């Protein structure tokens, strides 16, 4: 039985080569491709799930001045919770991620590393799960 609630917040990004970025995010970081819509090289809508919960949406950058979702490729940043930052760092490194900060312990009790994907987006992965919620 799956008890992980479905994501209610979806960070989004655009990519110059969305299909290549999807492949990279799956291979290097471990996202799961759940939906990709589009023709040829163009991706109109894609969803990638993060195995412990949550996910991202992305699509191809469009050179259209009327595009209401004109996010510049390579400007996205996200923090992603993982139980194994060292193992993920090794996987990402082997897949060609640009490591911008090696795994290290933080003063707030997390173990984190940071990397850029081929589009230049910044990803931080760590064990910090955020502050507990109050009812």
From TrEMBL:
Compositionally biased intervals (Basic and acidic residues): 108-119
SUPFAM superfamilies recorded: Glyoxalase/Bleomycin resistance protein/Dihydroxybiphenyl dioxygenase
Ranges for region Disordered: 108-135
PROSITE patterns, A to Z: VOC (PS51819)
Domain VOC residues, every copy: 7-128
Name of protein: Putative glyoxalase superfamily protein PhnB
Species, as recorded: Actinoplanes digitatis
């Amino acid at each position: 039985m799956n008890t992980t609630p479905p994501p209610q917040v979806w960070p989004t990004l655009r990519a110059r080569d969305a299909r290549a970025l999807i492949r990279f995010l799956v291979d290097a970081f471990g996202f799961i491709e759940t939906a990709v819509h589009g023709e040829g090289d163009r991706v109109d809508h894609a969803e990638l799930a993060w195995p412990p919960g949550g996910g991202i949406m992305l699509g191809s950058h469009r050179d259209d001045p009327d595009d209401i979702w004109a996010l510049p490729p390579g400007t996205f940043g996200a923090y992603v919770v993982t139980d194994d930052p060292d193992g993920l760092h090794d996987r990402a490194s082997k897949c060609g991620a640009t490591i911008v900060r090696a795994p290290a312990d933080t003063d707030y009790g997390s173990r984190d590393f940071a990397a850029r994907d081929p589009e230049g987006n910044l990803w931080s992965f760590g064990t910090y799960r955020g502050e507990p919620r109050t009812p």
